[in-house]
Design goal:
Layout (H helix, E strand, L loop, with lengths): L5 E4 L4 H9 L6 E2 L14 H17 L12 E12 L2 E3 L5 H11 L3 E12 L2 E13 L4 H10 L19 E5 L2 H5 L3 H10 L4 H7 L4
Parallel strand pairs: 1-2, 1-3
Antiparallel strand pairs: 3-4, 3-5, 5-6, 6-7
EC number: 3.6.1.9
InterPro entries: ITPase-like_fam, Maf-like
GO molecular function: dTTP diphosphatase activity; UTP diphosphatase activity
Amino acid sequence: MTNRPVLVLASASPRRVALLNQLGIAPDLLLPADVDETPGRAELPRRLARRLARAKAEVAAHRVPLQDYPGREVLVLAADTVVAVGRRILPKAETFADAEACIALLSGRTHRVFTGLALATPSGLREKLVETRLRFKRLSSQEMADYLASGEWQGKAGGYAIQGFAGAFVASVSGSYSSVVGLPLHETASLLEAARYPVRARWLDGALA
């Protein structure tokens, strides 16, 4: 569809691109938004996920080269995922100590993953928040040591990626699996369709062929 809206993804995450591909969608432009992800004082996890998704969408929307898409509507999709145990927000693990603390805290416990979605459109911002509950098995010292030695935790919220080695630690999931990976598919499709982006039509057209 030549007149379909332009879709900009405010991220360079290969995981989010791959998840959009599952919807038959290839973003027209990847435009990562650099925002300060530091939680505010006493900020709750769900509020942080919403705030960061909104901020990313707004920052990216201001950077879109509109001259490259004359006469076309532009949609900017952003997401942010926050891992929390109770009210405690777990960091993106950047050091071994970060990862060790996160995995020790998650072991044998239930935690929540919040993904905020924001879609900037010419008529305003559309938003959704998705909550998924997960429970980790109780990890042995050897399991923790082996996982930490893998280095897979680097840059991951909560020190793990469910689609990686740590997926074997997840005893139960209640909610959206794809949200934990980085982009809840059902809610993303719903947001795009509400903004008149032809998700289902692109499946039928073989958009990625």
